[in-house]
Amino acid sequence: MLPSLDARNVERFANLALACIQREYPNKIAHVLNSDADARPPRELTPAFYGCFDWHSSVHGHWLLVRLLRLFPNSSFESAAREALRANLTAENLAKESDYLHGEGRASFERPYGLAWLLQLCAELYEWDDPDSHTFAQHIRPLEEAVVHRISAWLPKLPYPVRSGEHSQTAFALGLILDYARVMMETGFEQLLRASALRLYLVDHHAPLHFEPSGEDFLSPSLAEADLMRRALDAEEFAIWLRRFLPQLPDHGHAQWLQPAVSPDRADGKLAHLDGLNLSRAWMLEGIASALSQSDPRLPAVESAARQHAEAGLAAVTGEHYEGGHWLGSFAVYLVTRRGIRA
Length: 343
Known about the structure:
It is built from 15 helices and no strands. The chain is an all-alpha fold.
């Protein structure tokens, strides 16, 4: 059983997002310059998602606030969160975000990680029945449509999966985007995503889990793939596929088969990734467990490893260093609120 979100932790995670979504600097922009006119500060280039060090972290910082407002109404941070969201998610700001995405040389901008989180934000707004959410959803719609179009055009051309442990990984992004398509009941888009997942991953076997983690991973290539495939296959098919893909999963409740990572320096932005790896591993293991039957002998080992990684990951979400504080709260909220796992 994962830790629950009590009022203190809800407020703590919300405050991590509130501390950064309107904090412009330091900032790392992935920006193609076509002329001197493109040399502008982040708040002018992407006026909705300019904070939190980088675009994708800003996007999932907004997602964090929307999710907590939806799940925990009347919390202590509600007024501050609504004020920040209203200031950033204006029609004008989001129109400029859409214009930016269509700019020359930006075909691969934030693809696929940031785009996946943008669609998660849209799904969260759709599921939150609130006057603010209806307004924000209307404002973000042109950007949302542009992202869906971009993913739809890109996936059929992608010849191989990207198996990195960082932002370029395709399995993680496809999982988030597939959840979006199902929430929004976009059946055509869902069919494309599922077909792409099967094309890219169905024949995989004997994942080299012993190669993980790489030194700067915040996503597990192997577990993210399994977490995607439990969404793309029915339960019986997934159980068979998983046996072939991760034959090293023990048939007993021994947690030592997969150990949490340890960050040697949380003030180093890249090494702080390892704290995020523990959080994402935990939710991916929870996702895998949710697709296995209660009688599956692998289930205790999967659940035990999930608990172990959740404890290690959540203990690191302190906000002491901005290098982790600007994004780890989103990963913690995704984990503890069981986003992506069907009831």
